[in-house]
Structure formats: C-alpha cells, structure tokens
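Practice problem 4.
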C-alpha cells in the first residue's frame, strides 16, 4: 500500500496511487510483449502502435501483427513475368498509373503479345495503335519500337479511363471502337459485334491475371478480452499526422 503526507501532516492513503499501481500490473504483459522485441521502431504500415515518451512510435511483437498484403503497385502475378515484353509492359503501365495486368490483358487480345502484328485497318504493334492515335502522343511509327508503342498505348488507355470516369468497360470499348463511338451511343458500349466481343474478352483476361484483392483481416485478439479495432487505429494515424 502506498501512503502520502498531506500539507497538514496527516497520513492518508492515496487511492489514486493504489489504482495506478494496479493498472500498471494489469498492463505489464503488454509492455513485456513490446519489450521482447527490444522496443524496435515501427515499420511502415504496421497497424499496432505504442506511444511512449515524446513522439517516438514503437511496435509490438511481430506475432501480434497482421501481415500486410502485397500492393498491386509493387507486386504482380507470377504468370505475367513469363509473358513477352513483361518488364517493358510493367514499366509503361506503372508510368501511366495502370495495373500491368490490365495492359497485358489488352495486349493479349489486341496482338497476342506480338510487336509485329498488323491489323487489316492498319493498327500496329503490341497495343495495335492506329497512326493517328499514336501521333497524339508523339509516336510517328508505332510498329517500329515496342517501347514507343507501349508508351503511347498506355497513355491513351489512361486518358480514356479519365474521360469515362474510370468505367473500364467504356474505356475498353473506346479503345476498340473510338471514344466518339462510345459518346455517340450515350456512353454505352457501341452495338458493334467486334466491340461487343472485345470488351468481355479483355475483362476475362484481366480477371485471370490481376492480383486477388487482399482479404479482410479477422479481428485479432492479442490479450484475453481485447481485440484490435482497425478503425480506431486508422483514426489515430490520421489525427497524428495533422
């Protein structure tokens, strides 16, 4: 029991001190878990944070943290790495803020990943660009260089997604039939047989090659009777950054 002296000299038990000691004992396992990893600094993205003196942030033991899912910006399906021009396609896609799996899917349907492909209408290269479309992006001979073909094609696809407010079906329809055709039919997929077949073909390939969405983690119990509330942590992180 802890006692303190008041100003008049009378000895009284400070119940708040007793309560503080009790809370300290109750939280000892939490601090022990953190101490077991040496109070190492928190790695970016870890949802478990402990605020100690000052602004230093520390982490709990890794066994009590949810592993972070790979980001589509830094990871790709292994199948994509085996496809032709994989590195160049990935670089061009990311420079235009596109999922590489989407660009691969479009190229698969457009040219079968062949830079030498030429359509009856005169579209050339991996992304089957018409000369007029390629010229918009400063490419005069789209069938000559696969890097230039990819640069113009991915920028064109990005512009179409922006034009149609990220409606992927409409952007793909515009890539195949032209943005004017999509607008002419009231921002719907034009009733052309080729376009009607083209859009689902690309979407199906994209579904096959894209990274699966990260699973929603189950509530994590890290002490009996307690669990992690991710919403509160996110709120704390946002509030701390303000």
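Answer key:
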């Amino acid at each position: 029991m802890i006692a303190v002296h008041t100003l008049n000299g009378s000895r009284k038990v400070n119940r708040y001190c007793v309560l503080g000691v009790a809370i300290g004992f109750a939280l000892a396992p939490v601090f022990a878990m953190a101490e077991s990893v040496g109070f190492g600094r928190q790695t970016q993205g870890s949802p478990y944070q402990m605020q100690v003196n000052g602004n230093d942030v520390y982490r709990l033991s890794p066994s009590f943290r949810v592993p972070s899912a790979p980001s589509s910006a830094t990871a790709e399906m292994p199948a994509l790495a085996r496809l032709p021009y994989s590195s160049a396609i990935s670089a061009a896609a990311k420079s235009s803020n596109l999922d590489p799996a989407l660009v691969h899917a479009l190229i698969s349907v457009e040219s079968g990943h062949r830079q030498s492909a030429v359509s009856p209408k005169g579209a050339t290269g991996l992304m089957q660009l018409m000369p007029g479309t390629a010229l918009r992006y400063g490419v005069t001979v789209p069938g000559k260089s696969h890097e230039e073909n990819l640069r113009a094609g991915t920028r064109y696809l990005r512009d179409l997604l922006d034009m149609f407010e990220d409606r992927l079906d409409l952007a793909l329809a515009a890539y195949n039939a032209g943005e004017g055709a999509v607008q002419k039919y009231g921002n719907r997929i034009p009733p052309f047989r080729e376009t009607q077949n083209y859009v689902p073909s690309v979407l199906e390939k994209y579904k096959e090659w894209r990274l699966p969405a990260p699973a929603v983690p189950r509530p994590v119990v890290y002490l009996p009777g307690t669990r992690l509330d991710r919403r509160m942590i996110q709120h704390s992180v946002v509030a701390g950054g303000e």
